[in-house]
Amino acid sequence: MDLCHVPATREKGWYLALMAPNVKGPNYAWLDPSRLYCHPQGLQDCLADLLQPFQGDAIDMVAGIDAMGFILGAAAAATLRKGFLAIRKAGHLCVQTEAQPYSDYSGRQKLMELRTDAISPGLRILLVDQWVETGGTMRAAIELVERLGGVVAGVAAICMENSEGGRWIQERYKCSHCVPPRLQPRFDQHQ
Fold it and tell me: pLDDT (tens digit, 9 = 90+) per residue, 20-61?
């Protein structure tokens, strides 16, 4: 797809066609959204769709999850005129941190960190990542925010798969994603 082309009619999720399938094998995510970020209108429409459910909600800060959540999270923070907090994989922050173990989409055990001085009690945080597949990464971010006294105001991702972890998050938090209901089964089956 031409990275400058904008369809005449733009329904929710039109920009999902900009994503590229995995060609490198099972150790990589099945779909790569980074090309979507290169398309100016695609990125703007994706952000508008992600943030629409939170219009009028009290949000104090946006937190993006390492690493691709940094792109959407920072863009969402700029759009909302809020600060941005990076939730990092362990070993990248040189300040006092709180850590949380988790399993990523490939089943690898990892550790996530959050600086301890970034969240004050009651601060309302919108958590953003590019994808919620198994929910392990997002759940670790939720646990870190809540452990430091923050309130999860919502969770936003391009796709939230209908996995056990994805359902756990959607049952407990206000969520937003970009996949139209008619396409959700294809995304859940990685087609």
Answer: 888 888 777 778 888 899 999 999 999 999 999 999 999 999
Place of tokens 């970034």: 118
The span from the CA of 125 to the CA of 191, in Å, is: 32
Query: How many C-beta neighbours within 10 Å does residue 43 have?
Result: 18
pTM passes above 0.85: yes
pLDDT, tens only, 138-185: 999 999 999 999 999 999 999 999 999 999 999 999 999 999 999 999
Q: Classify domain 18-189 by CATH number.
A: 3.40.50.2020
Q: Is the peptide bond before 67 cis (omega within 30 degrees of 0)?
A: yes
| Alpha-carbon gap, residue 145 to 125, rounded angstroms | 8
3-state secondary structure 39-83: CHHHHHHHHHHHHHHHCCCCCCEEEEECCHHHHHHHHHHHHHCCE
Give the angle 29-83-111 at the CA atoms, nearest 5°.
40
Q: Radius of gyration over alpha carbons of the chain, in Å?
A: 16
| Nearest alpha-carbon partner for 179 in 189, 171, 169 | 189
